[in-house]
Design brief:
The chain has 170 residues and is mainly α. The chain is built from six helices and two strands; from the N terminus they run E-H-H-H-E-H-H-H.
Length: 170
């Protein structure tokens, strides 16, 4: 199920493309990845706190990473099926509410969370696991809130109703 935006909103004037332009400080994977990399460095050089040691941690981590990758792949397929794209610098024309978007408004970012947590658990790196949540906080503050405001301006009541049904994260 999708809710379409008005094509005339992409023209000049009120409701124009400029009004809906999304300005992000950098790409979302970079915003999420920097804290995770910093957590990995803290684990290597400062604090080697454990999460789940051994084969159990490795298996759990691999499962989480796999689910995260599959979630991202599924999201891309659903977006493309609706004529959309995952690139944040391009205008959104359709509000996609099917597939993974039925459960979460941010399935790609949820995939990042699962991949980061899975890596941390499989590497038994508590500092890295903690840093994943700093990545989540940064994504929420620097990306998701801006995207939500953009989508609310672009799709109005359709987006507001959708946001009541689908959570921000997992």
């Amino acid at each position: 199920m999708t809710a379409g935006g008005s094509e005339d909103r992409d023209e000049r004037g009120p409701g124009s493309k400029e009004e809906f332009e999304l300005k992000l400080p950098t790409l979302p994977p970079v915003i999420f990845g920097i804290p995770v990399i910093m957590g990995a460095l803290v684990h290597l050089f400062i604090w080697r706190g454990a999460v789940i040691d051994g084969v159990i941690g490795l298996v759990i981590g691999i499962i989480l990473m796999s689910v995260g990758l599959l979630t991202i792949a599924w999201t891309w397929r659903v977006m493309r099926a609706h004529g959309e794209h995952p690139e944040p610098h391009l205008a959104t024309r359709t509000l996609v509410t099917s597939g993974p978007f039925k459960r979460t408004r941010n399935p790609i970012y949820s995939g990042f969370l699962l991949i980061g947590a899975g890596m941390a658990i499989s590497l038994n790196a508590m500092a890295m696991l903690v840093s994943v949540f700093f990545g989540v906080a940064l994504l929420t503050a620097l990306v998701i809130r801006r995207e939500e405001a953009y989508l609310e301006r672009k799709f109005g009541e359709a987006y507001i109703e959708y946001s009541k049904k689908a959570g921000r994260w997992l």
